[in-house]
């Protein structure tokens, strides 16, 4: 275990230190007083766990392949961009464009997220990326989604569980919402349905993790109606220029 | 060097704003530290600050901050200035020699009030009179540029990183109740001193991250009201639109926000009958004042500031509150740098303004105690 006081260190220097530690197989790195340093965990693979106290900067964990990052604070924008594997846990809210083009791994966010979360996530065989959001989400959630899973729990029961243009252009994957959503917010490529038993079992695993990370009562969360959003077809624009 | 509008450099920006709603004055060091946290969002081609409450000794005078390329421009400008204004104080704006700020123009400030006989002859109020003066200098005197024209406030800007600009202008020595900052990463145009943010007219100052694709529609609309866009920079129109909406048309702040970030027609369709009438009319009347394209923007006026995003939120914006202090910035880190334990931190949704104004009650109390007679 290594502890680094990140106060006043430029992101390039900080990430250089982190990279060396991860490559040498360090099991835990504690980063204290992080404030705005970008690109933490970018393009790293391994089994290291990074604990962050403070507010990490944009593009955290982009292209990350493995590792666990736990943030004891809020996240900023563009976390997990094109992430391939690993686990991110954020004890707060997160900004816009979370999990853009995500290909694997998981992101758990205790509170709400901003706009354009989970855009164009994709999956291949057993690589299925998952984003679990404790609060609500802004516009364009799961836009052009091609695979993977987004779960929105809306634990504060906000009026808007998701914003507008949810699932626009969706052609793969699934979005689960704890609660219901008005049709006008959904892209025309999306079907809305009540969940069935198989869905329930699938969600359960991730909600259990969520409850463990953030200390919530599992039964209280699951004892609620869910809907799922999935695409009408795999090629929504297949006939566009035909 | 080719100026704004003649070269296209495609590329982000950083913005930050702080207000003490009680009107207490604090040094410019806080805003400088805040914007410096986002150093990597800008590229050194422009940084600037707007400071409110810094000239209490001259609070009834227009404070003109002017860049001059040469002494001829200065002489010509001063001739016009002194023919129209009584100048109480003129001086070089104090600067510090720093390694990072180069090629500085001559930078002067003037505290002035319109000559009563000139004002009377013009049949304008002092604000309109001053706008005419500013546009006259900026469009007709080569090498002179009035970049700040409010009262008890001032803009300080340059080509450089914002923290170096703060150091250059000795901002730590000023005290204001509200501060804006900008770090520039020029989109479309090269960086030059006049083109740095904030943009200002009278008491309105704007810092902006984004790009206004509606610039030309807005410019033509504003020209009908006598505004002259001299910079070919998109942000300039935002200042004049808010001057038009708030000062000239007297729109409530909330509605002015709904003009620049107006609800989409399909959102209007879902509104209550009463709201539908209001927003339909607002959209039709102010169609050409809509700011289209990605933006996060802070607009300061003498009573406070508005922080607002475009309707589909294509630029970042975070807000925080601690007691009577309100902070807004492109990134949360820029707020936490100067406010360790905010009570609340939130990200406003697209088109939903954060409006942070001075608390009026205090002032009323102050006036009421003053007005007690007999």
What does this structure look like?
The complex is a heterodimer of chains A (242) and B (374). Chain A is α/β, with parallel strands linked by helices and 242 residues long. Chain A has helices at residues 11-23, 197-214, 218-222; strands at residues 2-5, 28-35, 45-55, 65-72, 85-90, 106-109, 130-133, 146-152, 172-178, 190-194, 226-231. In chain A, helix 1 links the parallel strand 1 (2-5) and strand 2 (28-35). The termini of chain A are far apart. Chain B contains 12 helices and 18 strands. Chain B has a domain at 14-54 and 152-364: Aminohydrolase, N-terminal nucleophile (Ntn) domain (Glutamine Phosphoribosylpyrophosphate, subunit 1, domain 1), CATH 3.60.20. Residues 7-11 and 366-374 of chain B have low confidence and may be disordered. Helix content of chain B is 32%, strand content 26%. Chain A binds chain B through residues 11, 35-36, 38, 54-55, 57-58, 74, 76-77, 93, 95-96, 114-115, 138-140, 163, 184, and chain B through 37-38, 40, 266, 270, 312-313, 316, 318, 331-334, 336-337, 345-347, 349-350. Chain A: It comes from Caldanaerobacter subterraneus. Chain A: This is Glutamate synthase alpha subunit C-terminal domain-containing protein.
List keywords for this structure.
heterodimer, A: 242 residues, alpha/beta, 11-stranded mixed β-sheet, globular, B: 374 residues, alpha+beta, Glutamine Phosphoribosylpyrophosphate, subunit 1, domain 1, 12 helices
